[in-house]
Amino acid sequence: MLRIPCPVCGVRDYTEFLYGGDASKRRPAHEASGLQTWHDYVFLFDNVKGAHREFWQHVVGCRQWLIVDRDTATNRVAGSRLARTETSAYEDRDR
Amino acid sequence: MTPARRYSAFSLGRHALLKRAWPRAWRSDKPKSSYDVVIIGGGGHGLATAYYLAANHGINNVAVLERAYIGSGNVGRNTTIVRSNYAINGNTQFFEYSLKLWEGLSEALNFNVMLSQRGQIVLGHSPLQIDVLARKGNTMRLNGIDAELLDRGQVMRLLPYLDYSTEARFPILGGLLQRRAGTARHDAVAWGYARAADSYGVDIIEQCEVTGLVIQNGRVSAVDTSRGRLSAGRVGLAVAGHSSHVAAMAGLRLPIESHLLQAFVSEPIKPFVDHVISYGAEFFYISQSDKGGLVFGGHIDGFNSYTQRGQFPKVQSVAESAVALMPSISRLRLLRHWAGIQDMTPDGSPFICRTPVRDLYLNGGWCYQGFKATPAAGWCFAHTIAHDEEHALNRCYNLERFERGQELDEDGVGNWTYKQ
Description:
The complex is a heterodimer.
Chain A: E1 3-6, E2 10-13, E3 18-22, H1 35-43, E4 51-57, E5 65-71, E6 77-82, H2 83-94
Antiparallel strand pairs in A: 1-2, 3-4, 4-5, 5-6
Chain B: H1 9-18, E1 34-40, H2 44-57, E2 62-65, E3 81-82, H3 91-103, H4 105-109, E4 120-124, H5 127-142, E5 148-151, H6 152-158, E6 174-178, E7 182-183, H7 186-199, E8 203-205, E9 210-216, E10 219-225, E11 228-237, H8 243-247, E12 257-266, E13 276-279, E14 284-288, E15 294-297, H9 312-325, E16 334-344, E17 351-354, E18 360-364, H10 370-387
Parallel strand pairs in B: 1-2, 1-11, 2-8, 4-13, 11-18
Antiparallel strand pairs in B: 3-7, 4-6, 5-6, 9-10, 10-11, 12-15, 12-16, 13-14, 14-15, 17-18
Helix pairs in contact in B: 2-7, 2-10, 3-10
């Protein structure tokens, strides 16, 4: 069983969480035009075999969105933190 | 294939009388330094591609590179179902072509792939689902494919052991039957293609991991492996499960995410399930192997992974589906369960195409459909590599379909890898 450490609730089974996909993907700016930019964002995946930074939401716990470091080759989880700390940094950089 | 190596009743008798050891089904050679075509991936698709390159296109100077051993990947991990009940133009014709190749495969390969056309029934549990099945059946029949819409009474006569009681979680209102669908022995498919390709002079190289692709001026020229560098005129990727991983060696990003799909076998019981049954209310499909075990599977685990180890909660949800459909098997014990890595694509359909790198070709993105597609995928991929152009049957399976709005979304669930 994959177990995810939630910074608020402690270590829980992954079934308590909703998977949210690759957290290293950056959404293009809202006004960005160009088919290729949006195509690449929506349809292409790095799909790495190894260290992967990803979103999970603790839906039946604290309901917080987390960023989890998991190795996709072994499912070993290296750590996690609240996503809002990092996503706000993304938004700052976007501005 | 040379007559001396043909399997027949005569050669069986001769070997029995002379007590001579059977020769290896395929040679185990050192790789040469140069090939016209290198196929990466010795699964069903890679071996079939090599076979059709030699048999259909006269290209014999071919190597198939396999990281582990023949039959170790998804060709030996699937639930062995073959069928051609697809409703979208492109898919319908491709999978029917595949089923036709299946029907002549044992003879073509001189190897019994144990095709068993026992019929597959997709169950419908609501009036809407019956409408969808009727439409799918009509599409199939318009394409010359056999399909029969069954009402509840007909399903009850065919499959008397399902739950038809008022307590059933989802009532069974009918189903769509394809009598030509069924199962095939998956290992035999790998071995048969390997042996037949070998007889044409194709080198099958096991224990040979690809570590890099040499790209010069936008063109692939060689493959770096754990057993040295092989120069190659053309290179075909047939490594579904790891397509992104190998394509990244050529600097490509693909519309593919790797997910796990689990399969299960119960302890063996006497003949009970005579058909292949697909549950319409959940992702669940079941058949019985010749050894007597019930073989069944469910949906993907739900997050991308390359581990080949499934998660336990999926075992529970698949078992729940099994018992909801067939309460009589509730006390049956599981013998084994395992996981395979699937290339999941945003629209649930595969790729057999050229790539932005010249002389590099892709066969991948098979989601759950790789096994039944094996003969046609090999046939079309060989054509694509030999002619540097897609065949009419696989023209729709290109990498540009998303930017052109030409997705092949068979299930109509939208652009999500994990929903296909």
